[in-house]
Specification:
- This protein has two domains: 82 residues, Glutaredoxin, CATH 3.40.30; 110 residues, Up-down Bundle (Glutathione S-transferase Yfyf (Class Pi), Chain A, domain 2).
- The chain has a four-stranded mixed β-sheet with strand order 2-1-3-4, covered by helices on one side.
- By secondary structure, it is of the alpha+beta class.
- The longest helix has 22 residues.
- The chain is built from nine helices and four strands; from the N terminus they run βαβαββααααααα.
- It binds glutathione.
Length: 211
Amino acid sequence: MELYTYYRSTSSYRVRIALALKDLDYQALPVNLIAPPGGEHRQPPYLGINPQGRVPALRTDEGELLIQSPAIIEYLEERYPQVPLLSKDFAARARERGVAALIGCDVHPLHNVSVLNRLRQLGHDETQVGEWIGHWISQGLAAVEQLIGDDGYCFGPQPGLADVYLIPQLYAAERFNVSLQAWPRIRRVAALAATHPAFIKAHPANQPDTP
Ligand SMILES: N[C@@H](CCC(=O)N[C@@H](CS)C(=O)NCC(=O)O)C(=O)O
């Protein structure tokens, strides 16, 4: 498989974690989101891969090109069911997907590169942009803190889908100076993931395009 990825892209980081948890081999194909003039993701070669101009994209072993991290992660879960990311129980699966969706639909889209640039184009200064980011990340993580369990990863002793979404969101929180102090359950999950080989392999600090 080939993964079009950017080292500090939250959505790419999710897919890297899922691949690593399932112990799947892939080649990383870095796409530089900040290369002048407007990022490699906005240039024709990459727009031919993903017309939306966003990372990640995955080329499967069968040569299929897939976009959108939730769809890619679902593909990996169905195609490579070993090391499942979801519980067997239907309601438990829905709870795990609920936390993933909270982060993937309601938090991360509000602070991706193009949304922040649009705020700047509309005249907001860096203080306002920072406040915007902090507001949405804090509101989302405060809810996640209520939804996850009291020990282990988000939902038990093994990492799963909710952790695949949460850990990259925590990396973004740190990058944007959002303190995790108020959320002990989240800090517990972060500490566990920090020692797990799959999360370490997927971390932005350990990518081929890490500056
Ligand atoms: N919903 C998409 C979001 C993809 C996305 O926004 N990726 C960001 C990086 S994390 C990106 O490519 N941003 C470029 C831009 O906004 O111009 C997914 O989960 O794959």
